[in-house]
Write a structure and sequence with these properties.
Layout (H helix, E strand, L loop, with lengths): L2 H23 L24 H6 L18 E3 L6 E3 L2 E6 L11 E8 L3 E7 L3 E7 L2 E6 L5 E6 L4 E4 L4 E6 L3 E8 L10 E3 H5 L4 H8 L16 E2 L22 E2 L14 E6 L11 E7 L4 E6 L5 E7 L1 E9 L2 E8 L2 E5 L4 E6 L6 E7 L7 E2 H6 L3 H8 L3 H5 L8 E2 L3
Antiparallel strand pairs: 1-21, 2-3, 3-4, 4-11, 5-10, 5-12, 5-13, 6-9, 6-11, 7-8, 7-10, 9-14, 15-16, 16-23, 17-22, 17-24, 17-25, 18-21, 18-23, 19-20, 19-22
């Protein structure tokens, strides 16, 4: 081989090596580039949303354990169309936004002082969580029993399917999370607004039904406003078959219920299901605060898919759906997610300083989970050691109690 050929080959190898080193040094996942620093990947040269790439390094291939095809399980309320109304706004996530969310739909709703989410009912159950301000909820059931309750931050309500209800804002600004036990919440025949019904009923029938003049209904708004301005109502409701209280109450007051024990010491946990909120038979929930760098331990839910709303902070979760398929997602405040029925997962707080706060929702009467560590600890240690190829003494000393939220270690 000629010396000139050898020289050219060495030069080409040098250039290739230099290119790899440049790729490793010019950026990585932290810079929003799919480059792992070990010779894999290359910079994005085409169109991309760099801000989203920075927020979602795991979409760029950061986790080497990810594998196979896992459907998208994440949606941000910031990607939802916001409906602006007189007295507030609403934005939602339904199955057409996130096709994997079949059992649950969610929404954020805002009401100004005195504003009313007009009188209505649904063919599905409604669950709500107040995270700013205070509201008045009012509901009437099929037995002519009623409840009017003031809810503060951290309080919850639940209206079974078909129960007539309304919500009114009490503070200057009020906001809450709404949950419905059907992902296809926008389908026709799901929500029924009272003024919408009245304006599509002959006035002669209305007059006969209410024993009033037809002219009384001349000003009923059409189309229905959904949210409308109003003033705070101080009327006391009496009559009918009495007020709903105790186990029949539509309202859950957080101050009356203690937090759960968290052996792992990594945060706080509040379970709200039919054991603590008896009326809520189709929607169960957990309100979680996870400390910086803490971990919601590896687990799965045997009874339902898990829908999530992230309220504060930032974190990540890997979802394992079987058959070697796993995918990691990055979450931050305003995101929603859904972990498929029985899929294995964890949630990690990726912040060094800020708590991660989220709400878990299940279409079930109760919250159930199986801890991976507890399962292994309560299985014969020899079987565990043989299966995982780990030392026997390690298998013998696994935690037998659920840790739930694990402090950074």
């Amino acid at each position: 081989m000629r010396a000139s050929q050898i020289s050219s080959m060495l030069l080409a190898a040098s250039v290739a090596s230099s290119t790899v080193l440049e790729r490793q040094n010019e950026g990585g996942f932290g810079d929003g580039q799919p480059i792992d620093g070990n010779g894999k990947g290359a910079p994005i040269l085409g169109g991309t949303n760099h801000a989203l790439d920075l927020q979602n390094p795991d979409n760029l291939g950061q986790q080497s354990t990810d594998n196979g095809v896992v459907p998208n399980v994440k949606w941000s309320f910031s990607d939802s169309k916001t409906r602006i109304l007189r007295g507030g706004w609403v934005r939602e996530q339904v199955v057409t936004d996130l096709p994997t969310s079949k059992e649950i739909a969610g929404a954020q709703q805002h009401l100004t002082k005195g504003s009313i989410r007009e009188l209505h009912w649904h063919r599905v159950a409604e669950w709500g969580y107040v995270y700013a301000g205070s509201i008045l909820v009012s509901g009437v059931d099929q037995n002519g029993q009623f409840q009017v309750a003031t809810l503060e931050e951290g309080d919850i309500w639940y209206f079974p399917k078909g129960v007539a209800h309304t919500v009114q804002g009490l503070d200057d600004e009020n906001e809450f999370l709404l949950i419905f036990d059907d992902g296809d919440f926008d389908a026709v025949g799901t929500t029924f607004n009272v003024d919408d019904w009245i304006t599509h009923t002959p006035k002669s029938i209305l007059a006969k039904n209410f024993g009033l003049s037809e002219s009384v209904f001349n000003s009923v708004p059409s189309p229905n406003p959904y949210i409308t301005n109003g003033t705070i109502d101080h009327h006391n409701v009496t009559g009918g078959n009495g007020e709903l209280t105790g186990n029949a109450s539509f309202a859950y007051f957080s101050k009356n219920h203690p937090l759960e024990k968290v052996p792992g010491g990594g945060g706080t946990l509040r379970i709200v299901d039919s054991r603590t909120f008896p009326i809520a038979t189709t929607i169960a929930a957990t309100v979680v605060t996870l400390e910086p760098k803490g971990l919601r331990e590896l687990h799965w839910h045997p009874n339902a898919e898990e829908w999530l709303y992230f309220h504060k902070g930032q974190g990540r979760a890997t979802v394992f759906i079987g058959s070697s398929a796993a995918r990691t997602f990055d979450f931050r405040a305003g995101d929603t997610g859904v972990f498929p029925d029985n899929s294995g997962h964890y949630i990690e707080n990726t912040s060094d300083t800020e708590d991660l706060v989220w709400i878990e929702i299940y279409k079930s009467d109760r919250v159930e989970d199986i801890s991976l560590t507890q399962w292994l600890a309560l299985t014969p240690a020899g079987i565990v050691a043989t299966t995982l190829k780990i030392p026997l003494d390690v298998a013998e000393n696994l935690q037998k109690e659920k840790q739930l939220l694990i402090k950074n270690r």
